[in-house]
Amino acid sequence: MCRTTILLGVAVLPLLAAEDGRGLAAGYAAEVDRRVALSSAEADFYARYLKAAPELVPGQFALLVDRAQAVQLAAVFWRAMDGGWHLIGASPVSTGKPGRFDYFETPVGIFAHTLDNPDYRAEGTRNEYGIRGYGVKGMRVFDLGWTRAQKGWGDRREMDIRFQIHATDPVALEPRLGERHSKGCVRIPSTLNVFLDRYGILDADYQRAVQEGKRPLVLRGDWRPTPWAGRYVVVVDTSRVWLRRDGGNSRYSVTSYAGTHISIRSDFAFGDIDGAESGAAAFAGANGRAETGAGDGGGLRAPSDPSRRGGGAAVSGGVAVSESGQSARGRKVQHEPGGAGADQQYCEYSQSVD
C-alpha cells in the first residue's frame, strides 16, 4: 500500500494513502487468517447498530463485537463520508463464558479506546497451565478501561472489570475462537490483532498524540495508520430471534423463540422485523433511561453456516439502556440485574487463563 507522509511540527505521521477506508478490505482478506464470511444482508443488519450510535460520525472505522453464544465474532466497519457503513472483514472471537467462578459476561455497550487507559504489549509469558493468556510476545493489548460487567457465578451482580481486547495463546486457545471461553474480555485472532495494530484502526487518539509530538511507546515501528482511524468498540448481543436461509432461494425466514415465522427478502429494511426498530431505538437511547420492553424485541440471526464454529453469525436488536446510565468507558446498552459492587477485578491481567 502507498503511504503519504505529513510533517506536523516535530512529528512525522505516515498515513495510508487511500480514497476511502474500503481499500483496507483487501488487506484484511490477505493478512487476517481467521475470518467469517458475512452476507450483505448480515453486514447491513449489523450496520444498523452502528448507525444508531451518535458517537460514530462519518469518516471513521469501528469494531463491532457480537457476544451471542452462537455467534462470537468481531467485524471491522468503515463509515463513509456519506454516512454509509461498509464491512471490511469479520473474524471469530471468544467472549466471557459465565458459569464458573471468576468468569464474567462480556459487557455490552459502546466503549472508547483512548489514551486515558494506555495500551501495552504482551510479554509472552506462560501461566501455571502453560497458557500465554495475551498471546505471543509483542501482541498489543487494547485497553478499554474499567467497566461494569455481570458476574457469571453466584449472585450474578455487577462488578468492575478491566475490559480489554487482546490476542490469545496461538496453540491452546486460538483454535477455540468462535465459542465463549474468556473470563470477560474479547479474545481475537493474532493476525487480527496485528491488523488493528499496524493500521491504527482504533488509534484516533494515538494519532492525535503523534501529531502533537508525543508518540506513545506502544506504537509499532511499522505503524501505518489509516487516515480514517476511529476509537469506538461496540459490543452487542444478538441472541433473540433467528434468521436463516430458506433452502435454495433468495429469501430468508425469521423464527422467533415464541414461534412467530416471517418471510422476508435478503435485502430487508430494518423495520421489516417486529422489535428490530425498538431494539435500535433502545441502543441509541441516552441519559440513562431504561427502555422497557426493548429487550423483548426482535432482531435477526444470520444464516447458519456449518463451516462456522459456533453455528454462524447472528444479528439482533434486543437490547436496552442500563438504568445505571453512563459506565466508566461509555454508554451501556443492556440492563442487567444486580446492584453496584465495591469489588474490582482485572478480567485478564491477574487471571490464570485469560
CATH architecture group name of the domain at 3-238 and 339-345: Beta Barrel
Tell me the strand order in the biggest sheet. Answer: 5-4-3-11-6
Model regions low in confidence, pLDDT < 50 over at least 5 residues: 1-15, 241-353
Q: Can you say what the CATH homologous superfamily of the domain at 3-238 and 339-345 is? A: L,D-transpeptidase catalytic domain-like
Instruction: Give the SSE order as H and E letters.
Output: EEHHEEEEEEEEHHEEEEHE
**Largest pleated sheet:** 5 strands, mixed
- Derived from helix and strand composition plus strand pairing, the structural class reads alpha+beta
Work out the strand percent: 15-25%
**In whole angstroms, how far apart are the ends?**
34 Å
Count of discrete alpha- or pi-helical segments spanning 4 or more residues: 5
Tell how many strands the DSSP assignment holds. 15
CATH class of the domain at 3-238 and 339-345: Mainly Beta
Mean pLDDT rating? 72
State Rg. Answer: 20 Å
Shape: globular
Helix fraction by DSSP (H/I, runs of at least 4) = 10-25%
CATH fold-type name of the domain at 3-238 and 339-345: L,D-transpeptidase catalytic domain-like
Structural summary, described in words:
The protein is α+β, with helices and mostly antiparallel strands and 354 residues long. The protein has a domain of 243 residues: Beta Barrel (L,D-transpeptidase catalytic domain-like). 13% of the residues lie in helices and 24% in strands. A five-stranded mixed β-sheet has the order 5-4-3-11-6. Strands 7, 8, 9, 10 and 15 form a five-stranded mixed β-sheet that branches. A three-stranded antiparallel β-sheet has the order 12-13-14, with no helix packed on it. The chain starts with a strand and ends in a 9-residue tail after the last strand. 49% of the residues are buried.
